[in-house]
Amino acid sequence: MSSDGVTARQREGRGEAESGEQTEDALLKAKAERKLRITVLICTLNEEENIPHVLPRIPDWVDEVLVVDGHSTDSTVAAVRGLRPDARILCQPGRGKGDALKYGVEQASGHIIVTLDADGETDPQDIPKFIEPLLQGYDFAKGSRLASGRPSRMPRYRWLGNKILVLTCNLLYGTRYTDICSGYSAFWKRAFSNIELTYDNCEMEQQLLVRVKKAGMKIAEVAHGSDGRISGDSKINGIRQGFIDWLVVVGERFRG
Length: 256
Known about the structure:
41% of the residues lie in helices and 14% in strands. By secondary structure, the chain is of the alpha/beta class. Strands 3-2-1-4-6-5-7 form a 7-stranded mixed sheet, sandwiched between helices. Helix 5 packs parallel to helix 8. The longest helix has 26 residues. The termini are far apart.
């Protein structure tokens, strides 16, 4: 502890808070000068218990909160309406997270789109960190849950699977990613719209990352905290989905 009674951890926390405020101030200035609209896109499927932990934390300077619901059978839609009466709620035309994301981007009014998970794994307070690279000339900002090691609540088998996926991606595409399965991302709508995506399930996100790389676009990786899903069980089988994701990453390398 220093002579003024402040610990190193407290000083570090203050420094991070000040840095975050500076990032947000610069973002708001650029947003006003360039007349940018920002959309937060959330895909939901039976997340009534988790969505209340997400929507209230979205910054009030976000222009549009767009929720694409995947035919929820619980009270997710009612919860969204109660928490954010201004949110646009759309029902996706098909099935799968990839289908919902593509439909949401198509319908979004923002120049910049930020994707959040509905299960509470992604903290909306990190949004400025994801938009900052876009304002500096990047096309995409992809999240990483693993930049600082294995999250405390992530099972070891899932951590190992993620490491295999990212190692495969780095070897095949010459990237230096630490995670390719985070649901947190930000991108220019025009950049996303220039990428042809053929999958409708979760593997669309891996296809997007490798096709963005192959297209020569600029991608930034942004570290973010992850305590995992707040409540309930995942909608996917992690091992099965991980194998599908791996096949997509490998297959895309040899596809023209």
